[in-house]
TrEMBL record:
This is Class I SAM-dependent methyltransferase. The keyword Aminoacyl-tRNA synthetase does not apply. Keywords: Methyltransferase, Transferase. GO terms for molecular function: methyltransferase activity.
Amino acid sequence: MEQKLTGVPETLLVPLWARATETKHENPIIKDEKAVEIMAKIEYDFSKFKNQEPTQISVAVRTELLDKAAKTFIDKYPTATIINIGCGLDTRFLRTDNGKICWYDLDLPEVITIREQFFNESERHKMIAKSVFDYSWIDDIKAKGPVLIIAEGIFMYLTEQEVEEIMDKLAHAFKGAEMLLETTPASLVKQNQEHDLIKDQYKIEARLQWGIKKGKDIEKLNSHIEFIEDWHYFDYHKNRWRIIRWLSLIPTFKDRFGNRIVHLKFI
């Protein structure tokens, strides 16, 4: 299948490549055989990602962190509803399904068209082909039990105003829900304004636009957001980070260059 995605949607191929690559590692952080299968069927020049080892490790670590956090939530609430915003070619449902949860994968129509070639919907696993800004998707969610919202690899490409708007919609539509949100350091966003990092590294037309310095800064977006905890990528699997392992001991470096998963609640 030839790949025609461009811009931000094209960035979904980076984590697909990263998870497939990690699965083949001799001592993998995560295993995602579905990613290996999908990557083999997509006609795309994945070789342009081959020198992006820090990115590859970051995706493996974030996958592990999000899997563990999602499983913890599901163990606590076995009939939960999970909303995966900007799902791309994510395969988390396959790894976390307990036979009772209800899962919604949300992404742009062109992305869902690709997903449909690799995933089948079921009574408990639905795909929504809409932009996150088309808030009619909220009406498509038939929540049963507590709600967990996951957003990885998407919010950093939105403006702060757009992030605030989305968070306000989520806070009002899903009061009491929890969210797992990938964030990028504000310093990297500033650096991206001077140098197009995504284009330079991956030859993809997408620009970083929003970031935060600390996990608790997420509360500044909306008075209905309560920060719970966060997990910094550099704190995990330090043996894989090479020189970054030592640089991350410097607090300013860690804050300026490492992504994190922020766990929050809408109150």
